[in-house]
């Protein structure tokens, strides 16, 4: 069949300025049927210069965000909305029936389970009640400074390092590691000024007198870290679980890694997915604990930017997610485990 005879599938991808947007744009355009529309709240987002069709979107915090998006979809005959922005997910999930009534698919999970996945504290509580291993953790109510100190004592600080993060946050915002054994002189003169480490007393002084959000305090897992790309079908069962070792990171983003067949991680992620009614592309991050097992760090209930590295395996995860959303059969190629990747910057001029 000639390209001009194929049915056009119009797709709106939001988050055109996200770190992984460029790669995902390339993946989606790998299907000649796809007419891609890219949207972002920033009119100068890189996606504007990498795709023919660009839409300036309101921010997810704008009360008219969903109406604006739906109106554009109807006017432009969009069939699939592919969100990349975490803050858009719950809004689109709650409005999914409105889109579907117009024949528009939205690649997003159900609201209840999405709310658990997006809340790091709720996620660990959920997994614990389902008998799925988690790091040792405590949840501290918003603004409860004495509760913070008590949580640290109960988790064994200063005898072991601890990680702290807001229950709900985007990216690595608010994440810190508090480890009294870290040499602060070394951090100052030998490390770049983007370290996650912070002194306990300094961190407490920042919180004092401020309305800080609910916090998750957990053991600091010492081993190697993995990101797992998964694609979950409409039956809430995983079609693929693809672990990759995070060999090197920059600003919380993988820039070098290796695909590793680690059966214990695959089984662990299958248990996690089985406890939640998620669907579509789902990212999971885990780290090796002191006992040698793996424990969850977080779930990203959306496509992950670095998922495009699977193209080195001949696996186009964004396109698989799109086809799954359309109800098409999705074939999973044999994985060439051990494949390594490295990422680099490219420029767009305007």
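Q: What amino acid sequence fits the structure above?
A:
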């Amino acid at each position: 069949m000639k390209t001009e005879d194929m049915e056009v599938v119009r797709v709106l991808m939001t988050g055109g300025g996200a770190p992984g947007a460029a790669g995902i744009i390339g993946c989606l355009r790998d299907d000649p049927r796809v007419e891609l529309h890219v949207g972002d709240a920033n009119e100068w987002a890189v996606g504007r210069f990498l795709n023919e069709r660009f839409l300036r979107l309101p921010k997810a915090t704008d009360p008219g965000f969903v109406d604006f998006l739906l109106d554009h979809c109807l006017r432009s005959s969009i069939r699939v909305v592919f969100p990349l922005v975490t803050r858009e997910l719950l809004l689109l999930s709650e409005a999914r029936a409105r889109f579907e009534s117009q024949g528009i698919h939205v690649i997003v999970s159900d609201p209840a389970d999405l709310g658990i996945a997006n809340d790091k504290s709720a996620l660990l509580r959920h997994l614990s009640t389902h008998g799925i291993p988690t790091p040792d953790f405590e949840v501290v109510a918003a603004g409860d400074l004495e509760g913070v100190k008590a949580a640290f004592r109960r988790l064994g600080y200063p005898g072991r390092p601890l990680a702290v993060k807001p229950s709900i946050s985007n990216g690595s915002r608010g994440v810190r590691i508090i480890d009294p054994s870290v040499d602060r002189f070394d951090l100052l003169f030998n490390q770049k000024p983007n370290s996650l480490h912070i002194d306990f007393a300094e961190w407490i002084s920042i919180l004092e007198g401020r309305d800080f959000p609910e916090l998750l305090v957990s053991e600091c897992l010492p081993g190697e870290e993995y990101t797992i790309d998964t694609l979950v079908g409409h039956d809430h069962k995983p079609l693929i679980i693809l672990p990759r070792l995070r060999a090197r990171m920059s600003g919380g983003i993988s820039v070098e890694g290796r695909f590793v067949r680690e059966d214990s991680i695959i089984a662990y992620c299958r248990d996690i997915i089985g406890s939640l009614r998620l669907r579509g592309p789902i990212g999971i991050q885990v780290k090796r604990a002191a006992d040698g097992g793996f424990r969850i760090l977080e779930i990203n209930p959306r496509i992950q930017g670095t998922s495009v590295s699977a193209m080195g395996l001949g696996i186009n995860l964004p396109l698989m997610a799109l086809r799954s959303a359309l109800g098409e059969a999705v074939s999973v190629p044999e994985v060439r485990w051990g494949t390594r990747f490295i990422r680099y910057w490219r420029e767009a001029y305007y």
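Q: And what stands out in the fold?
A: The domain at 3-107 is CATH 3.40.50.20 (Rossmann fold).
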